[in-house]
Amino acid sequence: MKPHCASRSLNVSLIALLAVGFVCSSTARARAQETSLAGKPAPGWQLKDLNGKSVKFSDFRRKVVILNFWATWCAPCRIEIPHFVELQKEYADKGFTVIGISLDDQGPEAVKKFVKQLAVDYPIVIGNEKVTEAYGRIDAIPATFVIDRQGHIVSQHLGYDDKATFEKEIQSLL
Domain boundaries in the chain? Predict the structure, then answer.
């Protein structure tokens, strides 16, 4: 009986998190439509990775990129990240990468711990106000941009989206 209850309460919690994410993302999506960057060149950036090494957006030229703004405390982000890990594993050898831009205030050590727990195998950098402004004043997360091989934003997603949505978009670009 106990495993069933734990499983059930986990399902209830997951449903509640998704519901909150849906409500938040609906508002964010309406705003995104007003300020869409789709069709425009993705803004360049230079940020530090979790080890303090400088990483530039230009390092990923000629790749299809999912650029994901997230934080460890963001419930929809926690649900979405494992999907990005799966996509990275499946499509990395085809010229694809996910790049995570952490918006955590706790610094790299807290992010490192979280990344290790979720076995994140794609580049993670620490964001700042300059990069969030460049991508349309990110004020809701997760905020995710799909970028083609020429460096143009194909789509932007504010709030949670499922793996199939991202997979369909990147497959058409590979």
Answer: 2-173
Please check whether residue 122 is in contact with residue 98, taking contact to mean a CB–CB distance below 8 angstroms: yes
The residues that bridge with 54 in the sheet, in sequence order, are 48
User: Where do we find the tokens 């979720």?
Assistant: 118
CATH ID of 2-173, from 3.40.190.10, 3.90.226.10, 3.40.30.10, 3.40.50.620:
3.40.30.10
C-alpha dist (Å) from residue 77 to 25, 128, 136, 141 = 12, 18, 19, 7
Cis peptide bond N-terminal to 3, omega within 30: no
* C-beta of residue 143 within 8 angstroms of C-beta of residue 161: no
Cβ neighbours of residue 55 closer than 8 Å, sequence gap 6 or more:
46, 47, 48, 49, 123, 125
| 116-137 confidence digits (pLDDT tens) | 999 999 999 999 999 999 999 8
pLDDT digits (tens, 9 = 90+) for 90-105: 999 999 999 999 999 8
| Cβ within 8 Å of residue 172, ≥6 positions away | none
- Element holding 155 (H helix, E strand): strand 153-158
